[in-house]
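yo, Origin recognition complex subunit 1 is done. seq:
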Amino acid sequence: MAASTPRTKTFQSPTNNIYRKSYLSPSSSTTPSHHLTPQTPQILTPLRRSARHVSRKIDLGDDDQENLNPPIEEMNLIRKRERAPRKQSTDGLKTPKKKIKSKDAEVSFSPVSPIRSEKTTRKRRNTETSSNKRVYYNKVEFDSVEFQIGDDVYVKRKEDEEEEDDDDAEIEDCRICFKSGSINNVMIECDDCLGGFHLKCLKPPLKEVPEGDWICNFCQGQSLEVPKPPEGKKVARTAREKLLSSDLWAARIEKLWRGGVDGVYWIRARWYMIPEETASGRQPHNLKREVYLTNDFADVEMRCVLRHCFVKSPKEFAKASNDGDDVFLCEYEYDVHWHSFKRLADGDCESDDHEWKEEEEVGDSDEELEVEDEDSVRDSKSKRGLASSKAANSLKGRFFGLDKVGAKRIPEHVRCHKQSELEKAKATLLLATRPKSLPCRNKEMEEITAFIKGSILDDQCLGRCMYIHGVPGTGKTVSVLSVMKNLKAEVEEGSVSPYCFVEINGLKLASPEKIYTVIYEALSGHRVGWKKALHSLNERFAEGKRIGKEEEKPCILLIDELDLLVTRNQSVLYNILDWPTRPNSKLIVLGIANTMDLPEKLLPRISSRMGIQRLCFGPYNHTQLQEIISTRLKGIDAFEKQAIEFASRKVAAISGDARRALEICRRAAEVADYRLKNSTTAKNQLVVMADVEAAIQEMFQAPHIQVMKSVSKLSKIYLTAMVHELYKTGMAETTFDRVATTVSSLCGTNGEAFPGWDVLLKVGCELGECRIILCEPGERHRLQKLQLNFPSDDVAFALKDNKDLPWLGNYL
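structure:
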């Protein structure tokens, strides 16, 4: 992606003037040899993109040319020989047939003797062995410049550019004063035309480089006359300008070798391509300094290499604001055969280089690898590859299968235009976006930090448990993760002893017993069955035996949705909460659930092991919700203050769920963005209260909410009893007998007639048909499991202000 700050010009090359080099081969006098010699771009002048395939000149001598192009008369004789009936079968040896004239001027069609053929082959091999021998390197110093495998370089395009390349400017001149920069005179680059300007030459002049994108006055469309260079001043083009205008090539070095009798250095180049050279051309969302890595290779002489350039990934390119003019972005790979793009994985450009180095086992330039030809290189690499095969997880981040096909064009949404304030607000208000800071929970975070530090800093570390509870959307999990992030920074500083952290979410477990497998895999790195994992964990926490090469340090176990681990005999919770009580366990358990009285509902042997360390996260009030939203939108001017307050008060009156408040504000930003795009007369560019009201009406007037408002009285009581039962137990599901008991209690307390179990069963079936609740299939009516298909906040919103049953709000 494009850097967020303008690129400033640097004025000192990494190796000063060592890039200025002559284009003569290391050996001034070369003798022609009859061997496989790839031609360079200097020998064969290319036309356009297709000319990057460097042709190979094959010279096999006169005899071989005669074999490759036999005369027509001989071909006719061979065809007659093939059509003639064979008297005697040969051994299947097929050799090329040549005209052999005898003294009687008769043509003989007998095949050449195998012994004679072997002799000629051996002689030819002996003569070509010395010419085909190659010496491969990892590093080469050529004309006082060091090149190594994986470097990105400029490659000359035409031989007649030698005079022009001598005037290659490594530092660009200012577009106004036509003078190069210095250390005291900083230059800034325009993000549109890539032109360089001194800060002092601008009108008005700039004191420092501004943040964000910067566009010069000439590109902004102002009526300014572009300055012309003074008379006699020759403006030399930089290598970057030549590359982006297709007058220069860029490539990545895949191999380095010295071959042949003349000892010329060669490189295996993998070409880069600018967007104009692709089949789709330059697209509007292409960046100015963007290039594509292709699957096109060629052998090029070292004398065609101009100097280094630097092609970076999006993350590296964003940090390369002051790395000079020879910096380019490469995010996609382009297939020259299928004309398709695929996104490169992070670090993909470097992984190939490391693999090559490991397989070749070649050191620096002092260590050489001599081989006869390229086929033996492939054979040796395949053998060494079998001997040192890589692990499966080393291929993490690569693309396989259909992802290798790619797309014909780069999607525009990947790097579209500059984001507006509303687009930034929508991205920031996403629930998946982790905030930089968590307000309104400082007291709770301090208590969690003190509990963990008190357990880790203890020399014995006998193990402790802490139960964290609260209604959904109150920041329980985010607070614990923020504390662990701060502790990790303290561990790196050395103020806190190291520990092992394992995070588990009960919703991601297929069954409660799978938690043993997850814990064992986090500690050992291996996956086993839950029974074997339970046995190993018992030895680890009860007897103090280490798992594999595990270091002896405390383990912090975070279990989110702890109530989902409750089973019939409650053995899973008992084992997990019993481990911290063992003397050699060094285990700290942090359990998170929505139910306040979960320990009291468990067996006494489990509640006693859970301990007395409890922390309650209460629901947010409107002031805290307003502060949370304002913190997220810090630096983004997209909302009116009254709109944020209105959304906070609406959510605080219903549930106090911060996630619901963020969703409403994000939807309000989408409504405002749609309104502004379709209206040409809209003056207010901010999210107003009307947009928030539209988002609330859209969210709380969904079809399922309308169904809840229109059901019968008994169905409303049934839903209220179900929400009350789920909130009381803290479980995600309940049974029909518990709901019926709660309905009976509510009707008796508020003067309503209890209809009976058969009528309630019919009501439950009707709600199940509407998909308001989910019913377990089967004939077990009394123990049938029930679950809400929508959040309980939607039920509370639909039934809280009911006129026929005003007392429902007391139980929601």
